[in-house]
Amino acid sequence: MQPPYVAVANAEDLEPGRFLKVEAEGRAFLIAMIGDDFYAVEDLCSHEDYPLSYGCLDGDRIKCSLHGSRFSLKTGEPLDEPADQPIATFAVVIDEGQIWIDPSRAMNAAD
Ligand code: FES
């Protein structure tokens, strides 16, 4: 893989229905495996900048443990109040047994 992709974990460290907290470029991210698909989001709730890694997965959603908002791992959209802004989602690629993410640009960022 080429920059801006960064290797963040071994693919074998992640199992379906689980997530890993990883670091890239000084920021924290969650990598989740849902079925055969991988998702990356910033480890930051959009409501009060609380780490989503303290929360839990609910299907293809991550639930914030502070006030309970759930976010789609696919789109970053909030599904419950009190959060009303999306979380940042990032591209994920599996290559040569490594999980790579592109931390340089959120896929759901407004241009
Ligand atoms: S800090 Fe996550 S829902 Fe409030």
Would you write up a description of this structure?
It is a single chain. With 111 residues, the protein is an all-beta fold. It is built from no helices and 10 strands. Strand 9 and strand 10 form a beta hairpin. The model has no long low-confidence stretch (mean pLDDT 95). FE2/S2 (inorganic) cluster binds at residues 45, 47-48, 50, 64, 66-67, 69, 82-83.
Key terms:
single chain; Rieske Iron-sulfur Protein; four-stranded antiparallel beta sheet; 0% helix; mainly beta; three-stranded antiparallel beta sheet; binds FE2/S2 (inorganic) cluster; 10 strands; globular; 111 residues
Give a quick rundown of the structure.
The chain is mainly β. The chain contains no helices and 10 strands.
Rg over C-alpha atoms, rounded to the nearest angstrom = 13 Å
Secondary-structure element pattern, one letter each: EEEEEEEEEE
Number of domains: 1
CATH architecture call? 3-layer Sandwich
Hetero groups in this structure are: FE2/S2 (inorganic) cluster
**What would you call the shape?**
globular
